[in-house]
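Re: that backbone. Tokens:
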């Protein structure tokens, strides 16, 4: 069975997609974003899935997309910020190299702006993001084998640290 070189997790604004693509380039492997897989399966953008079908339908698609990617993809895989909410997904991450990109509220807010294209952040982005950070941090820490602090750092610098941390493991 194939498994990813590493799986990148973290909250909105941590830089999972940006850093993940840079890490993949540094390691000479492919990059995949589970959110892209979800959109392809649904045939529409994630915000439309939330509006048309609701968050539970989105989470069902997300669990399936993550399971498929973990079993079939051997590059750098970025998961959506809420993917770790599912116990099933957290169990699937056991034994994987999981990189948690941690970010605090000020940096996350400056990176994502006012939540455009992020369905959970459309109402009161600051309060919602603070809640998400507080709620999910223990779950990110639970699944992580490597934690990288991203606050005040450029994506290239973060990617260098992640790639260096993975090489001895992977």
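Recovered sequence:
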């Amino acid at each position: 069975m194939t498994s990813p070189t590493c799986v990148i997790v973290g909250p909105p604004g941590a830089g999972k997609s940006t850093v993940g693509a840079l890490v993949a380039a540094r390691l000479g492997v492919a990059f995949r974003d589970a959110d892209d897989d979800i959109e392809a399966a649904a045939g529409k953008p994630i915000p439309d899935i939330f509006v048309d079908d609701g968050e539970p339908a989105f989470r069902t698609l997300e669990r399936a997309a993550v399971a498929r990617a973990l079993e079939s993809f051997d590059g750098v895989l970025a998961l959506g910020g809420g993917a770790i909410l599912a116990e099933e997904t957290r169990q699937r991450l056991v034994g994987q190299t999981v990189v948690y990109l941690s970010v605090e509220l000020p940096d996350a807010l400056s990176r994502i702006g006012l939540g455009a294209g992020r369905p959970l952040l459309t109402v009161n982005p600051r309060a919602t993001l603070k809640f998400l950070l507080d709620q999910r941090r223990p779950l990110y820490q639970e699944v992580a084998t490597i934690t990288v602090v991203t606050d005040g750092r450029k994506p290239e610098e973060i990617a260098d640290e992640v790639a260096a941390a993975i090489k001895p493991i992977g």
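Strands lie at 6-9, 31-33, 76-78, 98-102, 146-149. The mean pLDDT is 89.
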